[in-house]
Structure formats: structure tokens, C-alpha cells
Specification:
- The chain is an all-alpha fold.
- The chain is elongated, with a radius of gyration of 18 Å.
């Protein structure tokens, strides 16, 4: 185990990520080390098309989510971290955990008021997944975000992510059909295409 523990502090992000995942699989006693490592890796934007650090942040989300309930307290605390990327990634990871993460519901509801739009959207998407009693509220929030008329780049990204989140929720997001249908009518627009894809997922039987 010493070698894996040392590897969680390696300079290479992917090595730290794999070491943390391996430690938890070996024994739950390494939960704290694994969670701390994942949280550190998630302090950057998560993207498959980005840098190695950004790709690893996305992989760390997936590994973190596999921890299930033991990860929830760490992720809940991370929702209040000063680092906006960590807050966003923590919310996204809770969404991947699903209903087992219901204890984070209150923190996710608070995160809907985060000063960063992308954190709010990630929190809304996660809230709909972890707490069925809050799904209606979360979906209404995502619909509003998808219709945001702010012309800034961050707002457009937020609209795109909100549309994708609604689609990923599937049939439970049927209240979004009118808004998405309207967006889908926009000619040759990436957001319109995303709305069309989301509609197909929501209307799938």
C-alpha cells in the first residue's frame, strides 16, 4: 500500500487518479485518502476534449461516484468550496451517485443560488437525480436556465448545459418539452440541435 499512497501525490494527474481509485477498491479504510485525492483533481474544469488535467477531472468524477454513500459527505462539503470548478464537479458527481446521495439535497438546493451559473446548473441536474421530492423544482430551474436570454458566452454555455441536463433526465423532464420544442425550431443552431436531441431522450419510451 505505501506505493499507492505515495502515488496519490504524484506530479502526474492520471497517476494520482488511478492510485486513489485502487486504494478504495483495496479497503474502505482508504476512503479519506481517496476522496481527498479526487477532490484535489476536480479543482479544474472537467472536459474530455480539454487538457490532461481536465480529462482526469472527468475521470475522477466517475471514480468518485463509484464510492457511493461514503463519498457524499465529502462532496457535500465541496459544494461550499471557494473553487468554482470543484463546486461544479462535486455537484456533477452527486448527480452520478443518484438517490444514494439524498443526504446532499439541502446543500444542492443551496447551490442553486451559487454566484456561478454553471455550478447552479450542475446542482439542479444533481438535485433532480438525488431527491425525487425536489425533481420538479430542479427541472423548473433547468428550464429557466435553458431560456436564459443573456448574450454572454457563459450564459450560452449554461443554456447548452441546461438543455443537455434536461435530456439526460429523460421522461421525468417532460415539463421541459414546450421550452425545448421552441429551442429546437431555431435554424441551424448548436443549441437547437442539442434541444432536438434532448427531446428525443425525454420522449423515448
Amino acid at each position: 500500500m505505501p506505493a499507492l499512497l505515495i502515488a496519490t501525490k504524484d506530479d502526474v494527474p492520471s497517476i494520482r487518479q488511478r492510485a486513489a481509485a485502487a486504494l478504495f477498491r483495496i479497503s474502505p479504510e482508504y476512503t479519506e485518502v481517496a476522496c481527498a485525492t479526487f477532490l484535489n483533481l476536480m479543482k479544474v474544469s472537467a472536459s474530455l476534449g480539454g487538457s490532461e488535467e481536465e480529462r482526469v477531472a472527468l475521470y475522477a468524477q466517475a471514480d468518485f461516484a463509484k464510492l457511493g454513500r461514503p463519498a457524499v459527505p465529502y462532496l457535500t462539503e465541496a459544494l461550499r468550496d471557494p473553487n468554482k470548478y470543484l463546486r461544479q464537479n462535486a455537484a456533477a458527481t452527486l448527480g452520478k451517485i443518484g438517490p444514494v446521495g439524498k443526504d446532499a439535497s439541502k446543500a444542492l438546493q443551496e447551490a442553486l443560488s451559487d454566484k456561478e451559473k454553471l455550478v447552479c446548473i450542475a446542482a439542479a441536474s444533481a438535485l433532480a437525480r438525488v431527491d425525487p421530492d425536489q425533481a420538479e423544482r430542479a427541472i423548473a430551474f433547468l428550464i429557466k436556465a435553458a431560456n436564459d436570454q443573456d448574450s454572454s458566452v457563459s450564459a450560452f454555455i449554461g443554456r447548452f448545459l441546461a438543455v443537455g441536463a434536461l435530456g439526460d433526465l429523460g421522461p421525468i423532464a417532460k415539463a421541459a418539452i414546450p421550452a425545448l420544442s421552441s429551442l429546437a425550431l431555431q435554424y441551424d443552431d448548436p443549441l437547437a440541435r442539442a434541444a432536438t436531441t434532448a427531446l428525443k431522450k425525454i420522449e423515448a419510451k
